[in-house]
Automatic annotation (TrEMBL):
Record keyword tRNA processing present: no
Subcellular location(s) per record: Cytoplasm
A GO-annotated cellular component: cytoplasm
Ranges for domain UspA: 2-139, 170-291
Function: Required for resistance to DNA-damaging agents.
Protein name, as recorded: UspA domain-containing protein
Gene source species: Aliikangiella coralliicola
Length: 291
């Protein structure tokens, strides 16, 4: 990895995203762009404040945030990692990050997660996952362990070129991240058994699962062999994807789960979220989302 973009926590945050990025940077020699965001509601739209007064407010907020970030960095061992610190006046940080990633290539974007957003509200984390062109790691509170596990969640249920390419990207990213964190790679896929047919006894779930495993074997073998993955570290199960990804992640004590995001913009997608969003809310490990 060469370039990492880290979104600074608000004041009082643990800066978990930065610490994870720093560990990777120390192991790979990557550079870190550490960005903080500030904004005060009503300032830009005020008809009372002059342009000069608004500018002074901007600079005051930016200078204070810069001081906080500089003080934080002075208190930790950065090793030889090169870090560029920037503070931006911006209400919607996700739009700035997406635009920045369009300007410059980053190996990964890091952000500490906020998993208790209100129902019907579209969290900024979700917007970042849906639209950022680079892989996004949403970092939780769980620390990485020595000799950890990176879990690649694959989608083998479609033969579309888009899905095939996404699976390859997921495996490639898992291998890269495992190498940068001295971890081992596992992979998983959940076979969805049609519930309506099973309820009507039109299919036997176990027979259906076995047939699906057999039909997927050539694709699985190619992915596993190309990645140099031990077949014993491939978890092929039946069930709902988000639920099974979380269960497998907990069983193998994964530090990071990597999965693809197929953007959904319908009302149903907004209400229920896609697999990536459901996993983000339930799994205790960090989540990397790839478009």
């Amino acid at each position: 990895m060469r370039e990492l973009l880290v979104i600074a926590d608000k004041e009082g945050g643990k800066q978990s995203a930065f610490y994870h990025a720093l560990e990777i940077a120390k192991n790979t020699g990557a550079k870190i762009e550490f960005v903080g965001f500030v904004h005060a509601p009503g300032v830009d739209s005020s008809e009372i404040l002059s342009h000069e007064e608004k500018r002074k407010v901007h600079h005051n907020y930016i200078d204070r945030k810069q001081e906080v970030m500089d003080t934080f960095l002075e208190g930790i061992d950065l090793g030889d990692v090169k870090i560029h610190v920037d503070v931006v006046w911006e209400k919607s940080f996700e739009r700035w990050v997406i635009a920045r990633c369009d300007q410059k290539s980053f190996d990964m974007v890091f952000k500490s997660g906020h998993r208790s957003e209100a129902f019907m509200y579209t969290p900024s984390d979700w917007q970042l996952m849906r639209h950022c062109p680079e892989p996004v790691m949403i970092v939780g509170d769980k620390p990485w362990k020595e000799g950890g596990v990176v879990l690649a969640a694959l989608d083998l249920g479609s033969t579309s070129q888009r899905t095939l390419d996404l699976n390859e990207d997921i495996m490639r990213q898992a291998i890269k991240l495992a190498g940068a964190t001295n971890s081992e790679v596992h992979a998983c896929y959940s076979i969805a058994v049609p519930k309506a047919l099973a309820d009507l006894d039109l299919i036997d779930p176990k027979t259906y699962e076995d047939k699906m495993k057999a039909s997927l074997d050539p694709m699985i073998r190619r992915l596993v062999e190309d990645a140099g993955l031990d077949r014993s570290k491939l978890h092929l199960v039946a069930g709902k994807p988000a639920k099974e990804i979380c269960r497998i992640s907990q069983n193998i004590d994964a530090d990071v789960v990597i999965l693809g995001n197929k953007t959904r913009t319908s009302l149903r997608g907004r209400l229920l979220g896609n697999t990536a969003e459901n996993v983000l809310h339930k799994v205790p490990s960090d989540v990397v989302v790839i478009k």
